[in-house]
Design brief:
Radius of gyration of chain A: 18 Å
Oligomer: homotrimer
Shape of chain A: globular
Largest sheet of chain A: 8 strands, antiparallel
Distance between the termini of chain A: 29 Å
Strand content of chain A: 35-45%
Structural class of chain A: mainly beta
CATH class of chain A: Mainly Beta
Helix content of chain A: 10-25%
Number of strands of chain A: 15
CATH architecture of chain A: Sandwich
């Protein structure tokens, strides 16, 4: 049809200009009810992973902020927090590990976490720069069949939200791989160059389930 | 043999993907007992040198931190310190020279020191940017047959460690040359481009002797 | 001669390795007596100019610092200052113009000033980034037959130095052209790419006259 031809023409033009569209999530207000569930490409049965996102927030000062939550029925399997004092904390079913990195802010930060069970090596990357490596949960396995939540911290299996911990701001480009990506690959992703296809959570193709006041916006990259 | 063929296949695959492995040292806690000795490729009989490393640490505030120590039986021949106030100090058997450069932090800093006996010129490089040049120990020679130590400051020939001065964090890519490398070469190394083979300490091939609680991790570059 | 052949061989080898040597000036201490006079390639009879240098200093806080002084018998024809509050000020025989740019520091800054008499347009460049343009001394001419001084501010024709205003740190790569260079040319110079030959002051060929405690060092680029 004419509409289909116009659509293909637009797609072709967008490809010519080198531009790409990406969806982004805006959490505008403090609530205990708004969140987005991401449907992974496969169960999170993980002995190693790389998890990346782009995040921007005006939250600052003494405020906990949940950035990423993956919870099974009984455990917080993989939570990433902004701590009360601005540092970032990773929690995998139990005590966490804290990184004293520069604070998140209103300009987008490209944030990655890598973890490998064999060595226990865990590191953060902010805008392509790697933090010091720490040793954490050597020999551990992340358990499958839970739920991935952005915007709230579930204190039980999707529920028990606390608005004082909710995320306010913008999150996009959340991707997860079941391996530790090379440092140079993460530098490439930060710089907007090629990225390997994410096989655990893939922002381009993952289904999103919305609850409450969350906006989805298409932006040109 | 079959094993050798598998090895060569893996090498070939790793080269195809453009990735490279590098070892990194994690010093997780404050001790007066954990350190790593590096075995140089040749004696440190030096009238000029370039010494580089990548370093990340959460230590801040009023805390001395030893970054690199080379000591013979009687003298601290070549020590690099973070001073109490965050500045960096270089000590070659006696009084040191201090650089008021930006502080080290939890994101990796690529750090180099160059020194030349003929002119006495000494300079730091942080992430490829050169500090001001200073004049230090003109005509001096670094003496051979000592020990290179990461993680502790030996107050006598490998011993007399003070936990208040120990290193906590991550150090990798420690290399030393017996000449002053050009500024542009150091910029290239920071950016991960080609580097001349290090002939005094070579991180790729140096033997490491471990004492206490130090982790070694392989990371992909 | 054999010496000449050896010299040409060394030049040819240095060109092969892509390295280049550049001289740099180190002012180590506070004095009212140490300075360097630069002998220009031609008189500074200027209706437009571009003046560039690389500079590194640990001076900070409330301290005036002279960066470049060109004085005839009666006037400060062209002085570049770090002001008491860290801003940069340009003075051409009389009242100056102030730029609220980022502070100089211990890591080298590539600094340029451009001025054109016809429009009065004056701008700074720091590490290739251009400041806002201001209007200053439209129709003015810089007068010839003065002296170019680094390290001190002459309050009369080479004399009357004040150690509270002296430069401490490192200055190199001081060049001056009798025209306003394009922005992209200045970016290229910052990045160490090609530069047009400087026709007023040429760092590669200018004669330097030393007074007091100033060191000259050759560094490889």
């Amino acid at each position: 049809s004419g509409k289909s031809i116009l659509f293909r023409l637009l797609m072709w033009m967008s490809r010519l200009s080198g531009s790409d569209s990406i969806k982004t999530l805006v959490f505008p207000t403090q609530t205990s009810t708004s969140y987005v569930e991401l449907v992974p490409q496969k169960p999170l049965n993980l002995r190693a992973y790389t998890m990346c996102m782009r995040v921007a927030t005006e939250l600052s000062g003494e405020r906990e902020v949940i950035l990423f939550a993956y919870r099974t029925r009984d455990y917080d399997e993989l939570n990433l927090w902004r701590e009360l004092d601005g540092r970032l904390g990773l929690y995998m079913s139990g005590e966490g590990i804290i990184f004293g990195v520069p604070e998140l802010g209103p300009l987008q930060t490209h944030l990655c976490v890598t973890w490998d069970s064999t060595s226990g090596a865990v590191a953060l990357f902010m805008n392509g720069r790697k933090s010091l490596t720490k040793i954490y949960k050597k020999g551990h396995t992340v358990q499958p069949w839970g739920q991935v939540i952005l915007g709230q911290d579930p204190d039980n299996y999707v529920g028990g939200f606390d608005e004082k911990q909710c995320f306010i701001g913008e999150i996009l480009d959340v991707n997860m791989w079941d391996s530790v990506l090379p440092d140079s690959t993460i530098e490439d992703m930060f710089a907007g160059r090629t990225a390997p296809t994410a096989n655990v959570i893939n922002w381009g193709s993952t289904a999103l389930l919305f609850q409450g006041n969350v906006h989805i916006v298409d932006v040109e990259r």
